[in-house]
Amino acid sequence: MTALKKAGAVIIALFVEVVLIAVLEYMGHQLYPIELSMEDILEQGPDAIPIIHLISVLIAYVIASFFSGMVLAKLSAKYWNSTGLYILGVIGTLFAAINCFTIPHPTWFVFGALLSFIPFTLLGGQLVLRRKQRSTSV
Predict the structure, then answer these.
(1) Buried b (16+ CB within 10 A) or exposed e, 18-33
(2) What is the rounded average pLDDT of the residues 89-94?
(3) Please, what is the average pLDDT of the chain?
(4) pLDDT number for residue 137
């Protein structure tokens, strides 16, 4: 039964991550709209995408991975410690890799996207786990 609870917690946290990324990217598109179509971007290359838009996407990745780590730690703190956080971070990194290698992106963005999920998922999760450890030890 605990394996099902672990998997459910990861799925819920992944759902939170995907929804947060979608909402934050939508907000970024509203603040910094792209005037080019996808065909124009593919034709002109990754340098056609405005830098401010790419930075807003990286910020969305960081915020979403941080809060999804918090959600996972809150849901599954009594079942496992940081293993689930690593799994969630790796899944986010795989999704970012698929995105970055399917659609051309600047090299700095690819590195930023691939290096953002695991650390910020761990950071958000460890924040919750440490708080729970402090509250149970007092």
Answers:
(1) eebbeebbeebeeeee
(2) 96
(3) 88
(4) 65
